[in-house]
Amino acid sequence: MATQSTTSTNSGTTQSLGDYIKSRMIRIRSGDLGSFPIIIGLIIIAIIFGTLSEGIFFYERNFVNLLLQMAGLTAIATGIVFVLLIAEIDLSVAYVSAVGGVFTTLMLRQEAANWPWWLAIGVALIITTLIGLLHGVIVTKAKVPSFVVTLAGLLAWSGVVLIMTTRFSTAGTIVIQDKVVLGIANSYLPMMWSWILAAVVIVIFTAMQFSQRASMLRQNLMVKPMAILLMQIVGLAVLLLGVVWYSNKDRGVPVAAIIVLFFLLLWSFVATRTRFGRYVYAVGGNPEAARRAGIDVDRIRIAVFMISGFMAGVGGIILSSRLRSVDTNVGGGNLLLNAIAAAVIGGTSLFGGSGRVSSALLGALVIASVENGMGLLGLASGTKFVVNGLVLLAAVLIDSFSRRSRENSGLA
Amino acid sequence: MSDSPLLELKGVSKNFGAVQALYKVDFKVHAGQVMALVGDNGAGKSTLIKGIAGIYPYDEGQVTFDGKDVSINSPRDCAELGIEIVYQDLALADNLDVVNNMFLGREKTQRFGVLDENGMEQAAKETLESLSVTTIRSVRQAVAGLSGGQRQAIAVAKAVMWNSKLVILDEPTAALGVAQTRQVLNLVRRLADRGLAVILITHNLHDIFEVADKVTVLRLGQNVGEYSPKTTTQQEIVHAITAGEMTHVPGMQEEA
Fold this sequence. Notes:
- The structure holds 2 protein chains of 2 kinds.
- By secondary structure, chain A is mainly α.
- Chain A has a single domain, classed as ABC transporter involved in vitamin B12 uptake, BtuC (Orthogonal Bundle), CATH 1.10.3470.
- Chain A is 73% helix and 1% strand.
- Chain A has a two-stranded antiparallel sheet with strand order 1-2.
- The model of chain A is unreliable at 1-11 (pLDDT under 50).
- Chain B is globular, with a radius of gyration of 19 Å.
- Helices cover 32% and strands 24% of the residues of chain B.
- Chain B starts with 6 loop residues before the first strand and ends in a 13-residue tail after the last helix.
- Chain B has 2 domains: 1-82 and 165-256, P-loop containing nucleotide triphosphate hydrolases (Rossmann fold), CATH 3.40.50.300; 94-162, no CATH class.
- Chains A and B meet through helix 8, helix 11 and helix 12 of A and helix 4 of B.
């Protein structure tokens, strides 16, 4: 252990399996739990609702429903992860997502604008990104806390949504009239394509892992044990193929799930493999250090708010497609709180600098599972709110305890 | 040690309104030399350094670096000359690991702007090894988990990684214990032995006698003497800091 992990000796080798497990155990014991608690939480949620619903929770049909339910939320939460990484907050995402959804729907009305789907979606996403730009500029240039700026945004954009929906329809409900946009959350990948897609993802992941390993060995760096690498590849393969197999027993993998997966991979890549992503973490960890390193901190902040606006737009279009229409309530309810809760439950710190893009997926999965399960049980909305609140509290408590033990072991 | 100084300031002055922070200060440092800069609070140490850093350019005076007259008007000019400054608060991002901190703002990239993590890890390890920093277990460890001395070592390593010629350290041992102070002083010595010029700002006379080749004493914005620790006692330096003879009385108009 001592010789394996020093910087000078024994580089360019494979860490032995025993050492790898030992160093992992040390990290877990010192409070660096990673995704461990959330996976345990998901298993508990599945057991509880599986039992209470007498197995309906596990039906293929419900599984595909769950994927559809979490798609829009995951997209919005992805933007929130970036905002939390720089230790800011965006309270406007729910209504900004509604602006995206409503604008798209309005532009698709055959009796009015009648835009093609790609133009409507494209312009809607540009608009929500510009809204993020506006928030970001006010936060950085006027030095107003993002909490206040986006709270004002929450109010103002909810008003805009109301104006837009009631202007063209007395009932306030506007139906989406385009097949492609409807298809986002109401069509499914042909079975063969979903298998091919899963296989392609697995092959790319494997190739990347092995080329990374080869280049690390070439440069005399220590690599993780081959057994762990193979386990990760097999784990990913089982997970992806399992999802495809189970979905294909019902309607298939929803198109919306593929879209969200694409954005998750894209933003994960940006966060971990590019300068921009590195600067986002640096700004969240120590803005002064980032500034002295020559990073334009304001520009990073503004860009992050634009990402938040963009992903809110993506989520909003998916959510409206799922409901096949927009009405005066779009963007309301607990969408905002669910999006922020998803990021936090997934393990993104509210204090900046720590978290992963994938936490949006895990957190959204927890929230959607709980909502889906309670829906199956036909619980009253009051009960639902209470349970949601308890789940969020549990996640924050785990985060707080793990941070404390990290501090005690000098790792935080 | 070369004959001509790497950095030479001749008669630099700086006013902040009515306050004369520096008055016609001469100062020089050679390559391969540790120059300690001492003085009481308000003596002008920080102002002198900020002039070199380009944060508050001097009002008058001449700056020569590597034999050429230069004017340093921004931190960027300073970095381009090969001058790196390690401030007291170090400015490390706790959530990033050692490699990421050392390359922050100057990341290596490969095709399509993808970060070259392996190349950076390799270079970071080499730099740390060349400075004999052996106490850091893994360069992929977050800086948050490091001790004060280790953090100081990372900040210094970050400064010397960019082919810098002059490294300025602002009170590097101020917050450290005995063992860690020793580690950092050893590191300072190694920098000079590698041929870098080092300016060490400090309040601690012990540090000076431990590593410095020369000491410049500032008092009330003036240079009151350059000493060599080998031939000087602590008393003499303390006397210079508190009661060094000044050529010019602050607040009085210059004659002729």
